[in-house]
Amino acid sequence: MDDYLKDDISQLIKRIGAFLSSRISELLNTQDLRSVWALAALVVTVIFTWRLFWAPTGPQRRQPKRQAPTPSSSAGVSSQPNANLLPSHFGSSIEDSTQAISNEFSQHVKPTLGQIVRQRLSDGRKVTCRLLGIILEESIPEELQIRATVRSSVLEVLVEMTKFCDLYLMETVLDDESEKRVLAALENAGIFTSGGLVKDKVLFCSTENGRTSFVRQLEPDWHIDSNPEINSQLARFIKCQLHISPLRPEQMASNVFSSSSLEQFFGV
Fold this sequence. Notes:
This protein starts with a helix and ends with a helix. It contains 11 helices and 6 strands. By secondary structure, it is an alpha/beta fold.
């Protein structure tokens, strides 16, 4: 439809509007119901005609999105970086870097001593351990008749073991005085107060065979000893053993681990 026809229709509608205004004023004064309905029908007709003539004749085309100006087309104008213009691999590279940093951080975080003890003992719930050469500095029963000295380096390991293990300490002594020295040394070291060990779980015997009988009666998951003969005798009965000795591991039974010290076994 050309512009002249639209102008004519616009003028016609304006005239009809003026006419309707005057008629409405008259109807409000006369309050004629039939005239009101006739006027309403005329208004609807005019509105319909207006929408019909002024509606777009064809489908509207969507305007293309404006593209960001390229550096070549906007010379001399500084542009800010756009996140949408980043390469597709940029997001994946950030995720890879974050994962690499997280993995490196995890490798540098050392496990606690308690976690190491649990892992090395394979969650064993009952452990028996000899005192001489392992917990005590002394290595033979004769030395206990003179003194008893607890190794300070092994205290932390013992405390962690008593937190989740039923730990029994045992030793062969030659007299009652040696037994008293050992108990006093353990008490002064704080083993009875820092951990879950009690004096009733420190066992004494007069022979090596007596210590073997203690271990078999208790049926522990682990036994720790410094005498290879005891380890050999218990190999059929105890699932896992730790032998504190400078001997090489291949010189021991298959179920016996060898270590030069209790601290070394747990990596302390």
